[in-house]
Predict the 3D structure of the following.
Amino acid sequence: MLEAGQRVRVRDDWPETRGPCHIRTPHYLRGEIGTVERHLGDFPNPEDLAFARPAPAKALYHVRFDLPMHWPEGRAGDALVVEIFEHWLEAA
Amino acid sequence: MSLLETPSGKLLDAISALLAAKGIAAPDEIAERIRITDQASPARGAQMVARAWTEPEFRAQMLANGTLAAESMGIPMRGLPPLGVLEDTAEVHHVVVCTLCSCYPRAVLGYPPFWFKSAAYRSRAVRDPRGLIAEWGTVLPDSVKLRVVDSTADYRWMVLPLRPEGTEGWSVEQLAALVDEGDMIGVTIPTRG
């Protein structure tokens, strides 16, 4: 279980290059470092649900990513807040 | 004829028949869901916002559990993803986007506006959110921090905007009339009009 305030990195993984898949981790966040805001609950893994496989519940977190990120337009102090499943997060 | 050229009614019939044949969803369940979705509109979300502006207890419940708050107002939420409510303050403004597709709190806001599903909105919301909402005339002071909430998974998010100044003593109905879908997505801010 991750704690609020913990620094995490989104796994720099690209399952879509290995075959058919369904993932809820946006491209623009892979490999990025953010901060856990809170645990939103546990939800059946959409990566399994999409293929009608048994889908164990996975912890879902709101993770904050401070702007600016990749792009020049972002303003310091602003942030993106994104739902990320625990199995996509690693310690940073 | 390609799939894209097939009349949508025929496609719906074919998918409904397949879902029924496989025991996934009966035609009357699908019809019920379509009926419920068709009934939803931003007026529902606006009523929740206006009530939150006038009733501190309801506001607290709405922020803690949007689904329960919606149900307490008679909005059908059964079987839907949890509703999360994002509280704007004098220091923080929220904008909602779904960069992956078009996740939207349909039960309380109805069908998403066409632009919410566009590639332009979805990409610019994370790249240049202040520039994006400026196209609606929404310019945040430097003292206000912007939080863009990318709705990627199991929640559906709506914004609880700030109550406009000069509306003291207004009724819930008068207040609800000030709030539209853009205010609850966060691209605009309700004003006294």
